[in-house]
Amino acid sequence: MEERLKDLSKYRFETSLEDLTDARIMYSNGRYKNALNRAYYSIFHAIKAVCALDGFDSNKHSGVISYFNQNYVKCGIFPKELSKIIRFASENREKADYLDFYVASKEEAEKQIQRAVTFSERIKKFLEDKEIL
Asked: Nearest Cα to 82, choosing from 115, 56, 105, 114?
């Protein structure tokens, strides 16, 4: 595998971990909408870390997510649970970012962060197996 793709994958995964840290900080400060956003981006950047290994990228979130689901979930490399986590995270982020008067709950922010942790752990193991991390 090309070294620059490995480096890009590692960088994107590190970005994912930073987003997760930010989600926890937002959560602990009662900023639940922001926690939903950052937890989503943790998941999204972890997906991009995997896609980087194939040299794939897209300007659209839907393109990245679709590629991951088609080439990694549908093929059985990752469990379908991860696809559900992506969907929930995306829906929550869109509500938090775009709906006027949306109030994110502490419970939903906590669930979203836990889903991001689960997602991160699965991606981390995959990248370790590929000797990226």
From this structure: 115
Q: At what angle do helices 32-52 and 3-28 cross, to 10 degrees?
A: 170
In this predicted model, what pLDDT tens digit does every residue of 63-104 receive, in sequence order? 999 999 999 999 999 999 999 999 999 999 999 999 999 999
For the entire predicted model, the pTM comes to 0.97
Q: What secondary structure, in 3-state letters, does the chain show?
A: CCHHHHHHHHHHHHHHHHHHHHHHHHHHCCCHHHHHHHHHHHHHHHHHHHHHCCCCCCCCHHHHHHHHHHHHHCCCCCCHHHHHHHHHHHHHHHHHHHCCCCCCCHHHHHHHHHHHHHHHHHHHHHHHHCCCC
| Contact of 13 with 127, CB cutoff 8 Å | yes
- pLDDT at residue 1, as a whole number: 66
